[in-house]
Amino acid sequence: MSIPEQPHDRHDGPAGPAPSASVSPGTGDGPAPPVRSSVDPSSLAPAGTDPSVPAQVATAPPASAPGAGRGSEGANPTPVGRLAATVERLRREVRAAQAEAEGRALVELAKGILVERLGCGPAEAARQLTELAEQAGMSPLEFAVDVINQAAKDRVSEVTDAFFATVSGAGAPVETSAAVRLRAAESGALAAHDAQAVADSLLQHALGPLGAVAVAIWAAGSDGSLTLAGSAGFPAGEATRWRYVPPDVLTVARHGLTERSAQWIASLAQTGLPTIGRHLYPDGGRVALPAGTGGRVHGVLEIAWPGPLEPQPPQVVRQVEALAELCAHTLQTYPRGAGADAEPRMLPDAAELMDLADGLHDPALVLVPHVDAAGQLVDFRIQHVNDRFLDPAGRPRAVVNGALLLEAYPMAAGGSDLFQRIERVHATGEPFRARRMSLTALVDEVPLSAVADLSISRHGTCVLLIWRIEDETARLASLLQHAQRLGRIGGFEENVLTGETTWNGQMFALYGRDPSSAPVPLEELAAYAHPDDAVAIGRFLRTLLHNRRPASAAFRLQRPDGVTRHMRIVAEPVLDTDGRLVALRGAYQDISAQHWTEVALAATRDQLAQTEQHASERSRLALQLQHAIMPPTRPPLEAPGLQVAVRYRPAEEEHLVGGDWYDAVVLPSRLVMLCVGDVAGHGIEAATSMVVLRNALRGLAVTGAGPGQLLSWLNIVAHHLTGAVTATAVCGLYDPVRRTLRWARAGHLPPVLVRASGAAPLPLPLLKGMLLGAVPETTYEEEEIQLAADDTLLMYTDGLIERRDRSVEESLTHLLSQVSTVPPTLDQQLDRLLTYSRSDTDDDTCIVGIRLG
Fold it and tell me: Distance (Å, rounded) from C-alpha 301 to C-alpha 432?
């Protein structure tokens, strides 16, 4: 970002915005810069006797100002134009008069420094100032600022010295202009009587040349609120609307207050934080700087730019930090109210806060800030301790009172962060509350911890610290009461000698009795119980009263409201040193919910057993049906020049009985039909659907139709006649004369052909077959393959190869490698496939194999 710096008249006075002239740091443009004066006023000697007062230090009007460059009001012939020109001329004169006054104030201050350093009179100091300024090639105002910086050694001088060291290669006018602007802003701020005038001075002298268009000065209240103490550049209506920001409302200014560091925001569009003038500059940059002294933040300085803000150089950052410090001095005396319309009032002092602490029922400390010689907060002094205060180390209140907080309680700066909490409340004014915070104190070099509820608040310049140590006995009693309430438990105690019975509150609720009524003694328990439980209650009382041993019993309590509750009573005898019974104590527990849960659980258990029995019967029926239709082994099929073998392996779990099926039959045409299929699902439904499809295919095969037509008819059966089941199948017709196999598939895995050259699946038809039953009608394409002597053809269902951890392609590859080794007989080959199958889905498996002789 380029920061325009406005050059100054080297002969007539302080800097003012000159028309169409700007200098950017580091550009090297413009006239050759004069050498910055490095003369130490303390070593100056009188240079003559003629006094010379600096010329008028007026500010030239900006080039863009209305009416700039006009000769007179008469330039506009209309009355309104003349009036506007007159108003603009008067504004320029007022601005010039203000700049002249501020410039003269700085010159007069420099003359006073020279009078003190040189031991001369005012006239001689003025003459020395003029002559030394001419020797240095600077205006009297610039030289006066240089003298003030060398004498003050304050925040502004540090900033300008650092600025000069950074941009010295770019020329002195830049640094001198920055110094003049900061000193002029400081002069205006110190001369102003309110924060509004300070805001006007900061924007005019220091922030406007940096490109800023508006500034807001916020005063922080003791309750954490923010009040707009002064603003410049924002419309009056906007300033009125943002006059007061309640506590806990997150804005740009509050972000700077809570973080206690400068918050630079490149663009408001990047953040959702509300702030004054956001709708005027929605993409503008903002910076919020805490304004504080002595460790306390009195408010926030917020500066607005019209557009996105680029990263600023360190010298500019130091300039705005110095301006925030100037605002802090003004905000120190700003009257703060409790709200937007509150009247200015005096903040409570330490004496009032001490009276407040003495009226509290909890331990309280009144703390005042303790600062070092540089004005930095280093600790808090314990100004007062109330009479409720008890020191953890046992020290008298008089020893703690008046001591520094970290000296009396060094552990406050440890893990609890107590000191940091107090410091933050003192700085920002936002109160802090915490429940069950651990506090640690050193007692004889041993850290002792206690849990307390904590409250920290700022009152004026003081901080009030209140804590309430948690009573462990009361806390345990509260926990016990909650446990009894949640567990529906009531306790009792009965004095055998006096006959007095004591109940807690939960007991009356269990019995449904009014708390003002008399408790029921144990001897009368049977009168309040169900008659069927009299035996159990009698056994309980004999064990407790006669045998003097702890006892328990479960019974049904009949309450006065007609409700019957299931209760459990547990009691024990209390004996004296001579073994005599003196008291009974115990507890009741309402176990109605548990009782009815057990009843429901028993009913559910019976229902589950019945369901399991029914499911077992269904699975057994499905398995019997499947075995009746397809026994695991069957006699070999008689076909000339052809060996046919089948295998069926049912699922190991009966409830997983599926719909896998196979068939191998010699048709009347002497063709051999070979087929396998798999109906979706398990159980009796899948088994019955399998029987329907298998028998339907066998009946359709006698028509002499080819495998494609057979599957088309079987699809109609699956879709319309069996409840729209879905299934896969592969069907083949082998011609023993021609040694050819015509086959078709309906979503099933292709058959595997094993020859001397190896094993491979049969090539799939161009049109892959659709599942059976998926659509009402479909066609299936046939393929024909020529077989040779010693060829083996295998048809199978997916239960042979399917695995959960790998794809079908991987499992099929493993199957091909496994069947490449041909055993002597076909039966041995099928048995080996079932034995060494790597499937893990526990599904049914069917295999049909043929081998040519």
Answer: 24
